[in-house]
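Translate structure to sequence.
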């Protein structure tokens, strides 16, 4: 993917990876903000225009694996929120691992988002849905920028690469995208879904029993030690390597993550997912997530679930981050489209289907 010239920004291969990664992550960008109201359908169209259309699959994070398990809350989270999920006890969860991009038959050897979606229900009927990535920041801060990036990075059919005449002006106007590219180039790319930390990326408003509000970003930190893929040899990775590794790992025993609630300091930016919080922060460990089983999508409950991260229990509400107000529209549009296109099987291991698509 790199061009012969060396542009002052990231190499073309990285740009392409970020574009696909974004296609995955901005399934988030639900779509009702910007200089004009951008609908969820417009965002879904941008995703399809950039990565291709695959009927029956999610428009982003198309390749996935269902899982189930439980969350054991220790009670400490009640200091920040009245949500029932933080009361001491064990609660069932279901979720989905996925990779960035809209092609369900794409290989795993890509420097893109590794993601975890999660739904947690408590006996009193409260429900908390989450959509998280293995990066602590996101490349763009609003839906209009995301749609612009999808258009700027759409491959030219003649070359298979983005048109530099379109891409360069976009990157010049969006230095946050270049900063994200730099982060992805240097950061460790986990070699398992089990050893990645998954971040909320956006901030959320937690309300405690006294009515006090706390701006929080959370993360699930794995017990498995982080080891990374060799980025110079990603093309050599078997097509479904990460998913098959997780299936084999789970057959041997459970995987666990610790939920950390990170409270904003005064002055922290809470309305831009492109900005990381730096320095010491108050952190509350709220419990342990245990994954005990994985299922292909046609057999698991995750396939037909919309992991809209604005579906929140009492005690948690969206922050002033504009992406949060937009995400539901895109999730809804993607869900409606694929539901009308008919059920799809798991893309894991579909070598013959992949060959037919080429």
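Result:
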């Amino acid at each position: 993917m790199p061009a012969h010239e060396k542009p002052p920004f990231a190499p073309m291969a990285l740009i392409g990876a970020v574009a696909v990664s974004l296609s995955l992550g901005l399934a988030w960008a639900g779509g009702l903000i910007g200089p004009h109201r951008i609908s969820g359908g417009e965002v879904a169209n941008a995703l399809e225009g950039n990565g291709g259309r695959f009927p029956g699959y999610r428009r982003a994070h198309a390749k996935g694996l269902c899982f189930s398990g439980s969350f054991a809350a220790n009670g400490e989270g009640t200091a920040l929120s009245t949500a029932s999920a933080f009361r001491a006890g064990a609660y069932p969860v279901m979720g989905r691992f996925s990779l960035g991009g809209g092609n369900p038959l794409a290989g795993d050897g890509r420097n893109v988002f590794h993601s975890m979606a999660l739904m947690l229900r408590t006996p009193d009927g409260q429900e908390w849905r989450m959509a998280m990535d293995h990066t602590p920041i996101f490349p763009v801060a609003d839906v209009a920028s995301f749609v612009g990036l999808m258009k700027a990075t759409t491959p030219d059919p003649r070359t298979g690469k983005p048109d530099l005449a379109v891409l360069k002006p976009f990157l010049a106007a969006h230095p946050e995208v270049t900063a994200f590219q730099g982060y992805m180039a240097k950061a460790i790319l986990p070699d398992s879904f089990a050893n990645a930390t998954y971040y909320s990326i956006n901030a959320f408003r937690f309300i405690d029993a006294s009515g006090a509000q706390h701006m929080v970003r959370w993360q699930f930190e794995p017990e498995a030690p982080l080891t990374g893929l060799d980025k110079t040899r990603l093309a050599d990775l078997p097509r479904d390597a990460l998913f098959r590794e997780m299936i084999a790992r789970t057959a041997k025993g459970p995987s666990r993550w610790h939920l950390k609630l990170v409270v904003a300091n005064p002055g922290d930016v809470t309305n831009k997912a492109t900005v990381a919080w730096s320095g010491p922060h108050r952190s509350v460990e709220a419990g342990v997530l245990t994954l005990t089983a994985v299922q292909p999508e046609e057999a698991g409950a995750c396939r037909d679930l919309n992991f809209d991260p604005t579906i929140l229990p009492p005690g948690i509400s969206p922050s002033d981050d504009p992406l949060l107000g937009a995400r539901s529209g895109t999730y809804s549009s993607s869900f409606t489209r694929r539901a009308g296109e008919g059920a799809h099987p798991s893309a894991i291991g579909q070598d013959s289907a992949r060959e037919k698509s080429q």
